[in-house]
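Curious: why this fold?
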Amino acid sequence: MIDVHSHMYCFEGEEFIAVVKRFFDGGGKYIVNAATSIETSHLVISQNHEFKNVLPAIGLHPELTVPGTDIYQKNISSKWIIKNTQILANLIHDFPIVAVGECGLDYYWAKKNGIEDRSLIFELQKDLLKRQIVIASELELPIILHCRDQEGDKHAEAEMLELLKSYGSKSLRCLFHSYTGSLSYLSEIVSRGYFVSFNGILTYRNADNVRDILGKVLVDQILLETDCPWLVPNKAKSRGIIQNEPIFVDEVAEYAAQFLGISKEDLWKAVYSNFEKFMRIDI
């Protein structure tokens, strides 16, 4: 098993150790621990010191720009972005970081929260993402992308693909994590050779759009994740589990394999190969 996108920094102390041990005792190989801020970037680096196979990815999440979100950075500005993306680059130079991210564009919450003047928020998000694309390209690291807009809107997908084209190197390895966007832009994502990862949302009754996406992604571009501690798969929910963790990525694999009409073992074999290509880490 590999969990290509988690937020293990949400677990602390003995709970963190127990969650990690359950995964590795169950046959897990790697967990990618994706930060969303400078503070959590330091946390994922620290957790990597405890468990080498809990791999640190560091980035600045777009929700830092959106008032009303849990991680909103008050008084964020272009100057703040320049300063903090430089801190990010310095951390990558100093520690064994495996990827840039989680970063991207999130237009959903600005619209959902009813913010009338959203133009500045969207410009800040694009600046934040652009600088992280450049860092990943220059340092030859993969990038883990968050792309979300309101249902029916496609601005986030369109603008992200344009930013990747304008500022990313031709060899930039990209992962669209938990992609729930439009099928029209999915075709471009796949044609560019980018990876797409799936989590517990795939198992939810109302997630036909995500199952449609899975059906249109080539098996050699699929990765699996939990996005824990959120998005518990339905099978685990039925057992009363309310907090997701990496061990449940195997339930996502089981569901995805059944949907695709292949064995779970064959799907994991493909995922291992895809992970090696994306991360350039041998399994």
Remarks:
- The chain has one domain: 2-279.
- The longest helix spans residues 119-138.
